[in-house]
Amino acid sequence: MNFDEIIVPEAFLKTRPNPVKTEKVIEFVRRTGHLDEPLTIEKDSKILKDGYRRYIVAKTVKMDKVPVVYEYQK
User: Fold this and answer.
1) Which of 1, 20, 23, 43 has the fewest C-beta atoms lying within 10 Å of its C-beta?
2) 69 Cβ contact partners less than 8 Å away, ≥ 6 residues apart
């Protein structure tokens, strides 16, 4: 999915992921070229549901596309 299409909820924006863990994920991405897990996105709204740390990492390393799994509204 194109990184720019993802909508981040206000609740995520008010938090700050653990910088040590975030740095480890950044190192992994720089070493391998991809995220360790996909982001979870709500299918219809494109709202981020899980993976805020990976979102931050993708933004930090300037990824254009990120792997996602879709969550469907019930």
Assistant:
1) 20
2) 38, 39, 40, 41
